Amino acid sequence: LETQPRKAAIIGSGYIAVELGGVFSGLGTEAHLFARENSVLRSFDPMIQTQLIKAMNKSGPKLFLNHVPERVEKNEDGKFTIFFKSGQSEGGYDVVLSAIGRVPSTKGLNLEAAGVDTNHRGYITVDDYQNTSAPTVFALGDVAGKVELTPMAIAAGRRLADRLFGNRLTARADYDMVPTVVFSHPTIGTCGLTEPRAIELYGAENIKVYNSDFVNLYYGTFFEGNAGEKPITKYKVICHGPEERVVGLHLIGMSSDEVLQGFGVAMKMGATKADFDNCVAIHPTAGEELVTLPPWGMSEGSANRK
């Protein structure tokens, strides 16, 4: 873009859609985000979805749920109109951004000639060590269709290089408990299982969920008088079993990206709620909320392990 659009449409409900919708809105563009179902970031924990929608309804972009695009037309004045399967339309857009996802661009590579197998969606089939069906041919990153994140691809590349050239024969990427961040407005961080997925795997009777809602202290000197409601940060910790191993962590609010990185390490190490409780809080920070979640100090986990 050479000039900032006055009015922009974003079609989609994933990472890119909510991130760029927030960017446009934050810069002052009238931004409309169209999702084909009744939520955004549908693979994320319900708490994250609900809180993000609240934030969007308050600060933008304007959210249109259950809108399935049928076509986009360019008008004589150069503006765009989007027509939906419902018969509705929205127009006057300077730009339309399609962020509906992507598929692997593998069809033109003639992979079958090299003996490299792909699945029905075009993703290259690999094992745990990034080996394809063809000897000496390896694949990693989004094209392998496991965890489609740039840092995950970098990590897989490093492990593969270690195995091929560093004499570390068992080196491989671990696709479990991968922390990820969405730079929406507000920022989202998540690692591990959502609450519905944890219930599906372990049963509702075997999980315990801890929640925290708070206002980040950054806003303590702002929003005086009639300035409005202060931004809310929400944290959710999902634990499994009597030892309360932390199997899901979901954050939305200021600094969630920075907070998640350290707690992601703890989760990879098998941290329990008791381990969280046993860590002294750093005050005043947002992250301290995760080590002071009530009821505090009651877990049967490994708080006293050496």
How is this structure best described in words?
By secondary structure, the chain is α/β, with parallel strands linked by helices. Helix content is about 20%, strand content about 20%. The protein is built from 6 helices and 12 strands. It has helices spanning about 15-25, 45-60, 150-165, 195-200, 255-270, 275; strands at about 5-10, 30-35, 60-65, 70-75, 80-85, 90-95, 95-100, 180, 190, 205-215, 235-240, 245-250. Strands 8-9-12-11-10 form a 5-stranded antiparallel beta sheet, with helices on both faces. The longest helix is centred in the middle third of the chain and has 16 residues, at about 150-165. The mean pLDDT is about 95.
Topology diagram in text:
Blueprint: E1 7-11, H1 15-26, E2 30-34, H2 46-59, E3 62-64, E4 69-74, E5 80-84, E6 89-93, E7 95-98, H3 150-165, E8 180-182, E9 188-192, H4 195-202, E10 207-214, E11 233-240, E12 245-252, H5 256-268, H6 273-277
Parallel strand pairs: 1-2, 1-7, 2-3
Antiparallel strand pairs: 4-5, 5-6, 8-9, 9-12, 10-11, 11-12
Features:
alpha/beta; 306 residues; four-stranded parallel sheet; globular; five-stranded antiparallel sheet
**Helix content range:** 10-25%
Radius of gyration from the alpha-carbon trace, in angstroms: 23 Å
What series of H and E elements makes up the topology? Answer: EHEHEEEEEHEEHEEEHH
Question: What is the approximate shape?
Answer: globular
Task: Give the averaged pLDDT, no decimals.
Answer: 94
How much of the sequence lies in strands comes to: 15-25%
Structural class: alpha/beta
**What oligomeric state best describes the polypeptide chains here?**
single chain
Largest sheet: 5 strands, antiparallel
- How many β-strand stretches? 12
Strand order of the largest sheet: 8-9-12-11-10
Stretches where pLDDT is under 50 for at least 5 consecutive residues are none
Please report the distance between the alpha carbons of the first and last residues. Answer: 56 Å
Number of helices: 6
